[in-house]
Every structure is written in structure tokens, then in C-alpha cells.
Amino acid sequence: MDELQFADCVEKYADTVYRVAFHSCKNPADSQDIVQNVFLKLYRETKEFESEEHLRRWLLRVAVNESRKLIGSAWFRRSAPLEEYAGTLEFEAPEESELFLAVMALPRKYRVPVYLFYYEDYPIKEIAELTDLKESTVQTRLQRARDKLREKLSIQKQKGDSDHGTQS
């Protein structure tokens, strides 16, 4: 891969790699470190990729592995509260912010499959390959994540409705 191809790849995939990392570690600084590690590995990679999709899958796989490595390390600490970081993001609608916070509040084992399935449009089979899980495990985690999100968002909606009802 020459310098121009590498620069194009970084420009095209840096945000995607960052989002995968962030869904794993919930920390902007750690996510940036993971992005740098992933692209450093790409820069040093000597094999040729078969296609653009092969490159994309390789990047996501390395991002998942780097995230696991970071989370498994003894010094890993969450340094910024999620709500503080979410306050810096811009959402088109309040519901998007609520959904983001609800997804990020899920345990890590649910967040990454949810992100890959709903935001990156990966099928369950490929998510299983990227995360070293069985397809049935990915399906189960997606279903449990949906159930948890439905419950959490339903409780928030009920709470919001009751808050508005007491103010009238």
C-alpha cells in the first residue's frame, strides 16, 4: 500500500474504527489511541488486500482486538463520564441522544454487536467472525440488547410522561 492509498484509507475509515473502539471502551482518548494503533498496524501490514471490503473487515477486526486488549489491561480506567462526552455530540433529535446513551449504557458484550449490526450493517455471520463469537451467541446478544434497550427506553418514556403530567 503506497502513501496515497494509506492516506485515503485513513480518511475513509478512521471514523468507523473510532466508533467501534468507542463502543468498546466508552472513552474518547482511549478510542483515539486504538485508532492510531489500528492504522499503525495497517501501515506496517505487508499483505495485499483482496478487495475494499476485505480491507474494511480487516480494520474492524483489528479494532475489535485492540479494544479487547485495552479493556483487558490492568491500567484501563474510564476517565470521562459518558454523559459528559455525550454532551459534546450533536444529535438531530433528542431521541437520538437518548438512544445513544441507552446503547452506551449496555454492557460491552452487547454494545459492539449492536453497533456492527445497526450502524455498520454487518450481517450476523460476519459479526461472529469479527468478534470471534458463534453466530448463535451474536443473535442472542442482539436480542438481549434489544430487550434491554426496549425496557430502558420504555422506562425513560414513562418517566418523561409522568414528569410532564405533574407540571400541567
Provide a concise account of the structure shown.
With 168 residues, the chain is mainly α. The protein contains eight helices and no strands. Helix 1 (3-25) crosses helix 3 (52-72), helix 1 packs across helix 6 (108-119) and helix 6 packs across helix 8 (135-167).
Question: How would you portray this structure in words?
Answer:
The protein is mainly alpha-helical and about 170 residues long. Helix content is about 80%, strand content about 0%. The chain has helices at about 5-25, 30-45, 50-70, 80-85, 95-105, 110-120, 125-130, 135-165. α1 (about 5-25) runs antiparallel to α2 (about 30-45), α5 (about 95-105) packs across α8 (about 135-165) and α6 packs across α8 (about 135-165).
Q: Which helices and strands occur, and which strands form pairs?
A:
Blueprint: H1 3-25, H2 28-44, H3 52-72, H4 82-86, H5 94-105, H6 108-119, H7 124-131, H8 135-167
Q: Give the rounded overall mean pLDDT.
A: 83
- The proportion of residues forming helix, as a percent range, comes to over 70%
| N/C terminus separation | 63 Å
What is the N-to-C order of secondary-structure elements (H for helix, E for strand)?
Answer: HHHHHHHH
* Portion in strands: under 5%
Structural class: mainly alpha
Shape: globular
Largest β-sheet summary: none
State the helix count: 8
Low-confidence stretches: none
Q: Report the C-alpha radius of gyration, rounded.
A: 18 Å
Tell me how many strands there are: 0
